[in-house]
Protein 1
Amino acid sequence: MRNYKHNIDSEIAYTHLFSKKKQTLVAALGVTVGIAIFIFMNSLMNGFEVASVESLFKSTPHLRIYKNDALSKSLVSSADSNKINLISNPKITSESKKIINPTSLLKILKNESEVTGVTPNVSGNVFYKNGDSEVSGRASGVIIDEQNAMFNLQSYIVDGNISHLSGYQNGIIMGVGIAEKLNLKINDNVTVASALGVNKLMKIVALLQTGNTAVDKTLSYINLPVAQQLQKQSPSYITDIYVNIKDFEKAKAYISKYKHLTGYDVEDWETANAAAAAANKMRKMMAMAISMSIMLVAAFGIYNILNMTIMEKLNDIAILKAIGFSGRDIVKIFVMEAIIIGIIGIVFGLILAFILINLMGNMWVGGDIGFFPIRVFPKYFGVGVIFGLVVTFFAGYIPARKAALLDPISIFRK
Amino acid sequence: MSNSNIILSAKGIGKYFYEPEKFKVLTDISFDINRGEFVTMVGKSGSGKSTLLYLLSTMDTDYEGTLEFDGENLTKQKKERLAEIRNEKIGFVFQFHYLLPEFSSMKNVMIPALKLGKYSREEIEDKAYKTLGMLGLQDQALKNTSKLSGGQQQRVAIARALINDPKIIMGDEPTGNLDSKNTSIVFDIFKQLTSEFNQTVVAVTHDNDFAKASDRIIEMADGRIIT
Ligand SMILES: Nc1ncnc2c1ncn2[C@@H]1O[C@H](COP(=O)(O)OP(=O)(O)OP(=O)(O)O)[C@@H](O)[C@H]1O
Ligand SMILES: [Mg+2]
């Protein structure tokens, strides 16, 4: 019976779209706006998110391995709290903070597949002195190249050159806050004194500005051996090992593994920066809620405008049914129309989103932020396309399906 | 499909409308129509002619009683099958000539045939053009139907109903908008289809001469058949 397949369904769909170009474009524009806002807002929030995380990791590693400086305990402790210990060590002392055999530990950690960076650190409290004025702070003894690779120190340098530290043993990279307080500038000398009474005259090779005032007013970077000398320790003395991994979100999951691997305590960035981490979490939840709302609003907008275009064709649906088109044909025709409108709208939506993101990204906000931290995340463009297609599909399918189930006459009677 | 001489059989058809209040539009309607018969349906305005014709053409499935068409029970049939039947075996001309406004006359006539897929596009084009020509519309073939006069639109609708050589052609006042010349053209076409090609025609009409010249008249009043 059916000798030819004439593809009349798509012919009708195309005719509908092309004979009412203006209407088609208006509907597509509805999709465009929905998609563009969806992508733009998500990029905005994620850009902000990434920027704040980056600022957190300017000085904090994903994981820190250290020797817990616990106080010494009683030599004998009774399990029964009713009994009194007769023997106890009278003097409570601080145990050594030293990590034993750091070289082999570093090697072991470097071989882990998830690890992207490892560097040893000797941190100690110091005084920075210039003449009579002095500022307390923390000097971080580092291997500067490794430190730079992990924390991108280079990008926070406002004066001088980071590489001069490796060339100059007694060099120091100093937070701008300290330098300002002590009235120091690049190439000036500063005296660094440790709690153990070691004094060193050091030369400022670079100034650092992270944007975090607490850091900029206290922190300096010096060469590892100098830090060891300040603590009166041998060259094998290490207080911390900094570890960065591929996905900082998974830091917590590696704590027990590294504890096991090294035998020392491990702290993840979230624990180390509880406040920042909580803020981070909150921002994430907020972003999710906003993203969902935008999705809903955009979906509703797209759905509505497409639904309207189809409802205007209700009479055509009845006529097509009267001359023998089945419900399946009707659904096919109108889903096709919706998807074509959707694709046109999505293409323009992607372009519009790209333009909006670039406009926003070129806005200067200043401070340590610079340009507004929005960027093109391909992920959201991908999600936007899928989202748009799904919504346009249903915007075509649902009303067409409803009409397809009706008797043609009951449509005419409406 | 069936060799019986009866093409369409209605048994105890009843129908209600519920808006604005429940009332029975059609009551206990039973009749048989033979193949090749040219039947006209008459009756006062509001007597239920259009309502009945919609039921017969499967476009309204909300009724009681049973309908049999070409040996097939229509009453319990799935919607998809009814669509197939309408496409292949029923040509319908509405009282208000419903055409697709974005398409040309030619396309409107061709669409049911393109849907059916029995013939090639060239054959369908050829046939559509000939049918339009028969109804005096060859000049209007490429015009959009939204730009045609009422009578022209009605003739396009008739051409569309004829395109698939349906077993039955149902018209709800198919000549209501036509002048006497075109009315007689349509009448002659219907006469020829029934007598020469054994197709069946059921046409609602208010035109007494038209009705008298047909094979049989069914008269309706208040939702019942009186003759
Ligand atoms: N959708 C509807 N809802 C309620 N009542 C309806 C509906 N359609 C028709 N009616 C009523 O049903 C009755 C029959 O209507 P129908 O259209 O079948 O009459 P008709 O015989 O075709 O009249 P005409 O010759 O004027 O076309 C009328 O009283 C009409 O008011
Ligand atoms: Mg009527």
Protein 2
Amino acid sequence: MTRTQLTVNPTTTPAAQRDAARETSPADDRVMLSIEHLSKVYADGFKALDDVSLEVRRGEIFALLGPNGAGKTTLIGIVCGLITASSGSVRVDGHDIVRNYRAARSLIGLVPQELTTDAFEKVIDTTAFSRGLFGLAPNPAHIEKVLRDLSLWDKRNSRVRELSGGMKRRLLIAKALAHEPEVLFLDEPTAGVDVELRRDMWLQVRALRERGVTVILTTHYIEEAEEMADRIGVINHGELILVQNTTELMRRLGSKQLTLQLNEPLQQIPEMLAEYELELSEDGHTLIYTYDTHGERTGITALLSDLSRAGVRFTDLRTRETSLEEIFVSLVSPQS
Amino acid sequence: MNLRAVQTIYLFEMSRTFRTLLQSILAPVLTTSLYFVVFGAAIGARIPEMGGVSYGAFIVPGLIMLMLLTQSVSNASFGIYFPRFSGTIYELLSAPVSSFELVLAFVGAAATKAILIGLITLATASAFVPLEIAHPVWMAAFLVLTAVSFSLLGFILGIWADSFEKLGFVPLLVITPLTFLGGTFYSLDMLPPFWQTVSLVNPVVYLVSGFRWSFYGAGDVSVVASLAVVAIFLVVGLTAVWWIFRSGYRLKP
Ligand SMILES: Nc1ncnc2c1ncn2[C@@H]1O[C@H](COP(=O)(O)OP(=O)(O)OP(=O)(O)O)[C@@H](O)[C@H]1O
Ligand SMILES: [Mg+2]
């Protein structure tokens, strides 16, 4: 197995790196994760996964996007051996996760959603412990590298309970990388991590991908999925509603709303503003403009100058992203 | 076989023990001394010899068994309950480790600690009464087999328990009474015939008796019966653990 590389190039912006990376995406044809007709019914009769099928190729970054309770953690849990599937099968690099669990699990690193750590252990010990569990010989150099890459080396002799929440999350990542996995599952990796470190983490995930590691992550945030993933799978109520290239999906989802609070209520929308397809609230006090962030132009500048020409004055304005919920509605509704 | 993982878990569990080394040693030394002050010196002085040995010497095997049973059960149950409680069990379940290896590591560590404490108890006792061990090999065998069987039992308890209350419940309400009523501090023939018969369904009677036989060459029941009971315990424990991992009981939803 090759050593984990987590080099970060600070000179380029994340976005530029991402776009560059996507063009030279190292994803090859080897299927690393293959899920077929996977369903899960919990003991209480709740159906958490409903006939999910999915393939992820080597070197891909795949984001599972879905609201609370969609079934993301359940899906990851089954692949990693924490939850028993009700039906269907999963293979990791061709190894069935039940019949050939040793081979399958050796390839997998898991960063769980919950911050579960041994409070009384030292950072370095618990990281080395994870490596030993996977049957690998001790490798202090690798452990040091992983801890350094996650900015935890200075904390190596601290007890886990002395770490902050964000540090604990990074420690979980370090533990998952300690055995040099080929497939990395990150269940909400950036929850509770500050903006700067979040950027760092994104870069590191991409660096992992560069050396052929396949990354599957979950998130509630469209921006995060957009920022990191090559492909996005949208999951809701246990069903994988769609799987698409990030760029294509973003084109489809990237609408925003501009809401204007008017000075004077309007009876109706002036003729000359018809082309903007504005919505007027019942009481005539608010105007809503929906636009595409990925379009050539948003039309906001033109709208604002046309508004003043039409003599419409406003006291306040705000913009808002389409919420996940609205996106699910738009995805499952027939016209989309 | 992922021996490295077994070793990793075993050493991790043992390091937990050594972190609290002083407590681990002090507790049994203190308890044993108290028992000897009360039962050996104060009360024992008025009790005639039992089966050719002084009362103080008579209670040593029972006392070691008492320590062994409670330590095995509490170490093993805590060892597996804690990762379940804290959530760190995810790491064990997602590692390329078989259930056999998992049991080997956890039960092995719990039994090791229990045996160490048994030996400390023995050493402490020898400071109070002159000891002779008639069958040292059998003594060691009883020590190890009992520690392993009851660590298995503790392991099962740690998987079954879903609260700290339940975790403390079994040792307190089952193990301790069974040990006290198991001929630890008396010989069965001191009981009325009816209670002698009742005692024969208490498995601890067989353990204490077999263990005492390995010290003084005599016990309440035959040594074959004692061995059979230990064997039954082992088989029942192993079967239960096998079923737990097969069904994912309390481990995998
Ligand atoms: N052990 C369990 N028993 C019964 N139901 C469960 C169990 N674990 C999860 N569920 C249910 O299954 C559904 C999916 O849960 P899951 O944790 O997979 O969601 P998720 O997509 O990860 O959500 P989140 O974004 O909040 O983490 C939820 O409705 C949850 O209540
Ligand atoms: Mg989740």
Protein 3
Amino acid sequence: MQRGKGLKFVGDSRLVDRKKQNIPKDYSEYPGKTEAFWPNFLLREWMVGSVFLIGFLILTVAHPAPLERVADPMDSGYIPLPDWYFLFLYQLLKYEFAAGDYTVIGAVVIPGIAFGALLLAPWIDPGKERRPQKRPIGTSLMLLAVVSIIYLTWESVDEHDWEAAEQQGEIVEDIDVDESAEGYEIYQSQDSCIGCHGGDMLGGAAGPNIFESDYDTEQVIEIIEDGIGEMPGGQFEGSDEELETLAEFIANDGQENGNGGDDGNGNNDE
Amino acid sequence: MLQKIYDWLDTRLDITPMWRDIADHEVPEHVNPAHHFSAFVYCFGGLTFFVVVIQILSGMFLTMYYVPDIVHAYESVYYLQNEVTHGMIVRGMHHWGASLVIVMMFLHTLRVFFTGSYKKPRELNWVVGVLLFFVVLGLGFTGYLLPWDMKAYFATVVGLEIAESAPIIGGFASTLLAGGEIIGAQTLARFFAIHVFFLPGALLGLLGAHFYMIRKQGISGPL
Ligand code: HEM
């Protein structure tokens, strides 16, 4: 670095006023077919990166991230499962030598030794030799660790009851039918409706839960009048006004006009 | 025009050495997949970084809707997933990205291990790498609770039980993470803070050190 007298600065700053040449370094001294990172290599990296990104976006659209029902700390029957990359640890804790009184072994000792060794690898294996086949102990230990992780993850996935897991986490639409509403009262006088959809409107002998699909008032009226699928039309007994009140009540997910229902959220249990 | 802007900035801020330090270096033949296809193993570190960037960006967008308290957390995620335009994609990117970081980082670690690149003079960078590994696992663990659904809650219960089984510090660590005896409102608030502020801060600091050392030492030579 140049110091001392004779230096010219940019204004009153500490920047030296001199023209920098803006040409890339010369890499010809490096061995082999060396390439400049900027811009040659970076451009190629970006092209590969965009292909990768497109594939990734397709994955996210094809497989939406899962979401189960809201946490219920009281539900002690739930079989827990961590995200897949912790499964090997989770599985380890299921073996007798690492569970119960020996949990410390599975939770602390074994992972501690493994990750500790990983952290200290440069000092455990300080030799100069870099090729894996020339340092058989390190190489075989690492292979053993990788195989164990894959095996434990596999066992854990295999042992888990995935069907039960899906069921226990399922979002259940939990509908609170307002039994004091006028619409509810009107429904109670419709023997034909009750016959299929049940007295509580939540489904019965031949019909599904009335609130299952998201229809608006008009559509509900249409369905009641003209029928849909197996359901016959023209079963409603009462005035047009009563029909409208009932339809509104149904479109509103079992609430009197205006509260609940239409946020499309189906989870009114706060 | 661009040249003029560049010169204007350069006179004032002397930016040439800065970007030169960052971007102007050689890519040796043995790490360039264009010359030897098997050199793609040297890309795993860069891919890990790429996914980390995806995580940071998608995470920033998630916090625009996510509400970190036990009453609203689930609702806000549900809303984001089902109502917000492209919310499903943003959440999906963060969800799948989390797995992808782990996979890429694992492959990167194996590459560095099997090429013996952790040896002198790169010991310190290896240690920083292992710390990065822990930070990323921590991000996975704390992030998993945030949607506050069944799997989130009970995985955290198990995780904290495991932490508690550690001798001496176990009870303290689990209380510190859970924010008390029960896993509830405090736990969610803490996991959120750890997931969004503490660990990303550590991650960025460690990444800075990681990249600085790589530039300083250069990539390890051919085997
Ligand atoms: C967030 C996680 C990480 C990122 C983004 C990252 C990124 C990178 C990048 C871009 C390189 C340049 C060479 C390459 O791409 O292979 C590199 C090199 C290196 N990384 Fe990582 N890394 C991460 C985690 C790790 C881990 C977990 C370890 C080890 C346990 C590690 C150890 C090293 C070492 C020792 C080098 C120098 C290798 C050489 O000179 O050949 N890094 N890292």
